[in-house]
Amino acid sequence: MANRRDPNRRDFVKASLLGASAMALAPSFHQVFAAPLAAGIPKRFVFIRKSSGIRPLEIALRDFSAKDRALDEKKLPLEVDLHKHELPSWLRGLDELKEHMTILQGLSAKMSENVHYSFSSVMGCFKSNRNTLSAIKRATIDFELAKLFPSPFGHVELSFAAGRMGIVSGYSAPAPQTRNYCYADPDTARSELFKSVLNPEAVNSDNDMLSFLQSKEGLKASGIKGHERRRQEAQIESIDAIRDRNKKLIEISGSLAKHLPELAPVHADGGPDASTPEKQAAMTDVLIAALKAGLTNVVTYTIDDLGTPITGLPGNETDRVGIHPLGHDEAFGGVPAWMTREQIRISHVNQIKTIVEKLKQVPEGNGTMFDNTMIMYFPENGETHHGIGLESPFLIMAGNNCALDIAGRYIRLPFLGTEGHKTLGNWYTTLLNAHGNPIEHYGDLDLEMARKKLHQTGPIEQFMGSFAS
Amino acid sequence: MRYPLASIAATLLLAGIVLASAHPATATDRLVVPPSVLAVLTQRCMDCHSGDSAEGDVRLDAIVELELDPRLDLLNKAQEQLFLGQMPPKGEGQLTAVERSQLMDWVSHELRKHKASTLEQKLQKPEFGNYVDHEKLFSGEYKDLPGFTYDRRWLISEFIFNATFQRMLKSSTKAKRNGLVVDAVGGSRIPNLSLSNPFLLPNVSGVRYYANEDLTGGHLSSMLTNAQKTSEYITNDLVKRTKGTYLPAINTIMALEEGQRATLASRRMFLENFIATLCHEIYGSENESLLPAFTPVALNAEKPLSKGETYKKAPFHVAQNMLKALDGDRTVYDLLLDPEHAGTSDDDFRELCERTWFFFGDHERTIQGRMTILRDYMPELRNHVATNARKLKPPPYKPLHDAEMEMLRSSVRKHRRKGDFYADIIDTCMSMWEQEFEQERLSAAPPSDQLLADLVEQLSVQILERQPTAPDATEYLALARSYVTKLGNLKAIQKLIQTFILSSEFAYRQEFGAGEPDEHGRRMLSPRDASYAIAYALTDQGPDEELVRAAASGKLKSREDYRREVVRILKKRDIVYLIDPVLADTNYQDNTTDTAIRKLRFFREFFGYPAAISIFKDEKRFGGDRLGDATARLLNETDRLVEYILARDQNVFEELLTTDEFYVYHDGDNERMQAASDRLKRIHDYFKDLDWRNFTDEDLLEHRDFLKEVKMRMVDPDKLEARNRQGTTIQLFKMSMESITARLAKGQKEAAPFDLYRGYGYDFMVGYNVSKFYDIPMDNWDYQTVQPAPVAHRKGLLTHPAWLIAHAKNTETDPVQRGKWVREKLLAGTIPDVPITVDASIPEDHHRTLRDRLASATETAYCWKCHEGMNPLGYAFECYDDFGRFRSVEALEYPDTLITKRPDQWTLLTDTRDLYETLPVDPKGYLRGTGDESLDGEVSDAIELADRLGRSRRVRQSILRHAFRYFMGRNEILSDSKTLIDAEQAYVDSGGSFDAVIVSLLTSDSFMYRKPIED
Asked: How far is the CA of A106 from the CAs of A79, A413, B25, B317, in angstroms?
């Protein structure tokens, strides 16, 4: 009896990988031109998106005092010192790092899309109309931050969404009505980010093309006057900027090679047989290497979505489990759904821990790279598997030079629709204001807050520390 | 396109402002204030702009001490204020013409020394268009100035980008028109290709597409990615799909590779499906001994649940999808369907599957994943296969042709080693064949120069829509050769495609004069450029065949030639255009026109109503759900109304501003709407006297004949057991009857033809909640089947909910924005930017109307000098709320003024709007600026305002000025005076035809003639 295969499926995978190999060093859209490279030590941001919500109780502290517990359960404002409390079991891996940790509860996300998927909207504060291009109203927060801290790649997006491989559409948005691309497996991410080391020919062929275009435009420029001439010169300069960047990447390929991550053979060709912990660990290695090599200062990492196949988790080692059924309490391999969900979160926490620890080993300025890094771990769709954006819990790990005054605390902000409530828009405004973008408010407003005529624009002043007005 | 300095000087001059004569530049940064200028500054400016308490923080007394950058900032502010006539302010002593000239000369000179004037750029922006004196433009005083536009390139728009890629890639958008699916031009979706459009236009109401934008590094960067993706799409998908008819040179160059690829693919597919069969055939009983020893995978033992723990197994469809994702479903189904294994026990069957996968060489983890599914879902799998046996039937064994089969057999014999998994055999064979083929490719000659030249020519025609020039052909051929040498055939072709797409010619429209200049130094557009200018003026596409022919055959050289082509295109009805890609993105398909798209788009952009869909609104305050659908329909029906008026083409501007007929939930086909209403009436009439609320299945069956003939959605008397998420057949029947009864039981003459009950799917027209924008209650809607039809309290587009929402805020109206729109768009007026010192916010007060609160914030002397140009116009629209609903009272929507809390959950006939205390609205306004005493003055509300605006000549001229900007891509200057006067005359002479306006503009000197760019 033959083992018949579906050739279409195989072709699709192969085509994805072909696409990956064909992709040259495309910068993340406008980033090359965003600003000159910042002097001094940049700030770094890692956004880790997870699916299926984080239930506020899952991330609440278990040993609250009775009074604090009552406040937390009633969604009333609260702030406690994490050092005096025990973390929820799935966060225990970060016990030693409490001084860098913030558990932020009470943000709402109703202006973004929720239920199963938020697509671009959780990082852009708009309704994404089921991922339609025209609904993307603005650059997402990660791209806004990337503009403030330019780098050769500007921004890097990694994703395990939908179990894809190769270079595929991402969720971040560099500009309105524009969708970013992302690297969907560790092998592709490594070979693309370190292409100048691994495949300098691809970079050179890009430069051949740019050189040809530049000379053609140069010829045209010699025959025109006035503004058309200035316009042409600007175009030549733009081409030059990309060529220069490519050249620089080739030039520094020696130092990049130092950071080149090694991947196990199981990740070859997109790693169809790699287990989830293996994939996550490998992607985390690439992420860390990209930060260490200075290829980017901002990474968005969709660690899973409802379509990400999960294998090899403790307790379900031999099962393949689905996050969507788990969200409906449907279980696999005899393991109750909540346990598997917890294992998934633990696998995420392991990655966060690795990033912190590895960056702490790299000296930078008077401290380490982690001092200038902020990691944000959050659900794409709010407070449950079918979140409606009432709450959007954030776990933040930030180094000693963090611009915000939030470290070491469990903070619950006033609930949606009450005085002092803060939305995702306020949180992102806080990030931008604290890092040099004085925007008045980032994102759409919340309509319930608006209906109740409650103030809702601007940063979260209490987090602004020395930036507070 | 920016104005050269000479041109800005001309603009200023023509606008009645005298610029400085050319002062010699000095090398020093030191500021020198000539005594004459100092005297003017001292006498006219210093009173307010000196010392620590200087107005607006602008200090002129300290200008000499300022560093260069802040000094230039200050001078730029001064130049703008002087040019715009905003300083000194009204009520203060004004400058004489000589004084103004002295100041302007000095400021301009200082700025020019440092090439730092920002006014030049500003004057090219659409929002500065009205600063050219209106009276002078239409007075006739300047009509003898020869009209022209400078030679220029014009960056493509977001719409041209979409249409160009569609053309280039042979794609189109599927849309619905008159109930049929059609291919439309426009839209951003190309199947299997995701492009980023870097040419998005600003999201404002008014003219959005101007020729002054430059191609920047940002565009280029996005285009790099677009070019890469497109080149891969062309070579890997399009060329193969079109079987060599698309860019045939690619097929020829890639013939060897393609043949090899097809051979390899066919071999791999056969082997992956039938390797075991083939090996049995080759090795017979010996085959098994050559395979590796079977080692079963270990599975996690199921652990007992702890006390109190519950466990809900994932449903079968989940497991089934996982098995498919693990590539294991076919093996399971095939083996279950194989009669040889009928009666096999579950354990034996599982082992059979595992052995199959093991011997094939699948990864241990993959097998584990499959085996856990077989462990947990065997009964469900057996049942699934038994129920779907026919659908799941495996295809029969089909060998390749003899020579290929012989090749496979000999390769397997040659490469198989003892202990190999089947996948190892396949991989080894494939690897050997790939090496052989590579050798074959290496020994093959590279593509000939002729073939590469063909490719260059085809790409040039396909991407740039022209034959390559001789130098281009030579250069691109050399480049192609170099790419082939370095990258191989496929990558070289892709790189060449990318190079064409990235050339500036792809991103810029060319508009240059050619031939001998006339006595004014002007030349007519070159015929080719003219063909594009005409085509892009009216559509998003390049010239059609007739325009191309006209350009090539010397028939695009006179005004009459232009007229012929413009009239022809305006009459054309053979192309369907997508109106709004945003609506298409929301799956709103009834969204097309067959008239030249840019005619309708002018009014869409001028009025700005499409922005209604991007204003984030609250369904609770809307009163019902599916607000997005309702807003999409609202836009669509606004488009329909504009098209209706454009189709009649009489008194177009007046009709747009004053029509009292609208479309409300209507697809434009009166017959179809009548038939739909008749059907509902028939159902209602048939059942209304029966006790249908208590019907049983049997009762329903008694009406079988009627139901078979008339048909109610999901109510099939022959399938009473059928159900959907909403309920059973009988339940759905009752829901439908409730809905129909609500629509007809109160004596209504007609029924709106929306879905019979709220449900999934779109059998009928989506967006019936559009009626809520007009405050029409769903259960008392006497629907008009013949539309457009009069709607109470409405007059013209400015009272249309789409315009009102687009010019409102999320939760309240915006009289300032609405007033500003009328002032600038209809009265050709100007409103300065909000000064940075102004904190533009309206105070909250739970017991006052918005108008009252706005007045207290803006009617102070400092604010009023700008707000008096906006507020009195915007106040008139206060008879509509921020959803565009007519009102006589304003709800004070604060928690402490809540009277009745209504349900948050919507049902068909529920209104979710909470009730609040109210205050009467005051929609009185004041119209000033028509230049007509009989029109200017107090207006009672927006209806009266619309009526007066519709009768104003100034309004007509203002719309014409915007039309000029739209079709020319630039602001008008006094040398365009004749063009504007002619356009107005054409409008009047034709009885208000907008087509006549377009023809007049596109045959004007301003459009046809070009002057060389000056340094």
From this structure: 11, 5, 62, 36
Contact residues on chain A for B357, CB-CB shorter than 8 A: 3
φ, ψ of residue B665 in degrees (nearest 5): 55, 65
Cα–Cα distance, A139 to B851 (Å, whole number): 35
Contact A393, A53 (CB under 8 A): no
From A244's Cα to the closest Cα of chain B, the distance in A is: 13
CB-based contacts of B473, cutoff 8 Å, min separation 6: B453, B456, B457
Q: Which one of B220, B299, B302 has the shortest CB-CB distance to A238?
A: B220
DSSP class of residue A314?
T
Among chain A residues, the shortest Cα distance to B223 is held by A29
Give me the total of CB pairs closer than 8 Å, taking one residue from chain A and one from chain B. 274
CB-nearest to A451 from B272, B482, B893 is B893
Binning chain A into helix, strand and coil, the percentages to the nearest 5 are: 45, 15, 40
State the nearest Cα–Cα gap between B501 and chain A, in angstroms: 11
B4 to A132: CB separation less than 8 angstroms, yes or no: no
| Mean pLDDT in consecutive groups of 10 residues from the start of chain B, 1015 residues | 39 36 45 85 82 76 82 85 76 80 85 79 84 94 96 95 97 89 91 89 90 87 91 95 94 95 96 95 96 96 86 94 95 95 96 98 96 96 95 91 97 97 97 96 94 98 96 96 94 97 94 95 97 98 97 97 98 96 83 96 97 89 90 96 98 98 95 93 96 96 95 89 87 92 94 75 76 91 96 97 96 96 97 72 89 93 89 98 97 92 80 94 98 97 98 98 98 96 98 98 98 82
| Contact predicate B31/B117, CB 8 Å | no
Longest dimension (CA), chain B: 114
Helices (H), B572-703: 581-585, 597-607, 619-622, 627-648, 652-658, 670-687, 697-701
Alpha carbon distance B438, A424 (integer Å): 55
Of B536, B516, B535, the closest CA to residue B526 belongs to: B516
**Would you call B616 and A318 a contact, using CB atoms and an 8 Å cutoff?**
no
Q: How far is C-alpha A325 from the chain's CA centre? A: 25
For B194-350, where are the E strands, in sequence order?
A: none
Longest dimension (CA), chain A: 80
Contacts 24+ apart (CB under 8 A), A34-42: A34/A146, A34/A147, A34/A150, A34/A154, A35/A147, A35/A148, A35/A150, A36/A150, A37/A150, A37/A151, A38/A148, A38/A149, A38/A150, A41/A364, A41/A365, A41/A372, A42/A149, A42/A151, A42/A297, A42/A372
Cβ of B269 within 8 Å of Cβ of A4? The answer is: no
* pTM of the entire predicted model: 0.86
Instruction: Judge: B334–A1 Cβ closer than 8 Å, yes or no.
Output: yes
Q: Are the beta carbons of B618 and A447 separated by less than 8 Å?
A: yes
| Chain B residue whose CA is closest to A237 | B217
Nearest residue in A to B313, CA atom: A331
Residue of B nearest to A338 (CA): B311
Instruction: Give the pair of three-digit tokens for residue B324.
Output: 């498919």
Q: What is the DSSP letter of A266?
A: G
Residue of B nearest to A325 (CA): B314
Q: CB–CB of A226 and B363 under 8 A?
A: no
Dihedral sign from CA coordinates of B424, B425, B431, B435: positive
* Closest CB to A23 among B220, B228, B617: B228
Residue labelled with tokens 């769903």 = B778
A382 Rama class: left (phi>0) / alpha (psi -120 to 50) / beta: left
Interface touch A127/B616, C-beta < 8 Å: yes
How many other C-beta atoms can be found within 10 angstroms of the C-beta atom of residue B687?
Answer: 20
Beta-carbon separation of B300 and A317 below 8 A: yes
Inter-chain CB proximity B196 and A179 less than 8 Å: yes
- Cβ-nearest to B1013 among A178, A228, A316: A228
